[in-house]
Amino acid sequence: NDGVFMRLERSITALAAAVLAGWLLAVLLCNGLFYRNIVNYEILYHGMAECWAQAAVRSRTRKICLLAVRVLQVAAVACITCSRLRRTGSLFLGTAIGFCGGVFFSLLVWSRGMAGGFLFLAAGFPQNLAYLPCLFLLLVSGRSDRTVQKDRFFCIILFLLAGGIWMELYVSPLIVKLF
Fold first, then answer.
1. Can you list the alpha helix ranges (DSSP code H) found in 1-85?
2. Is 177 helix (H, G, I), strand (E, B) or coil?
3. How many whole angstroms separate alpha carbon 94 and alpha carbon 13?
4. How far apart are CA 177 and CA 21, in angstroms?
5. Which phi and psi (to 5°) does residue 145 adopt?
6. Using CA atoms, how far apart are residues 137 and 114, in angstroms rounded to an integer?
């Protein structure tokens, strides 16, 4: 029984290290590219701000599109973690999640200064309370050799996904408007 917890602890540590490595790589890369003016962060930020402005006016079609994108993202992660390459795939996805977060954080800090750091937290805070545990459960299950109770696991994943989508549609826009 102790061996199972040790392996789970090692899987969680490896996954956390992959996320941190992706985050650090993105921050270093973005800072280098933005500092040398190889990439214009202002253009990227204005494009992102336009997307946020359009997202604030959520029509029924946009809500359905967001729902489809989030379900497909979780399904893709679930497929990768069920494949033969689940251990490597989980580490790759963890690194990719960290990289995306690092790019987003760097872009906001370069564009808005310290307020960008707070905007980063506010923009992702509500829905990430559900999305991150959902993805984390999928990624850790992909690295584990233990079988899980599929019905219970599936219900937890669906509940977290639904909560994240609801918060992204209704709570997050209210918080982002404060900035």
1. 2-35, 41-56, 60-82
2. coil
3. 11
4. 32
5. -90, -10
6. 32
Which residue has 């962060």 as its token pair?
41
CA 113 to chain CA mean position, Å = 22
What is the maximum alpha-carbon separation in the chain?
Answer: 54
For residues 132 and 100, give the distance between their C-alpha atoms in angstroms, rounded to a whole number: 13
Among the ranges 78-82, 150-154, 159-163, which has the highest mean pLDDT value? 159-163
In angstroms, the CA 87 to CA 145 distance is: 10
Residue 20: the pLDDT is 92
pTM above 0.90, yes or no: no
For residue 140, give the H/E element and its range: helix 114-143
DSSP letter, residue 36: T
DSSP code per residue over 69-126: HHHHHHHHHHHHHHSTTHHHHHHHHHHHHHHHHHHHHHHHHHHHTHHHHHHHHHHHHH
The amino acid that residue 100 corresponds to is: C
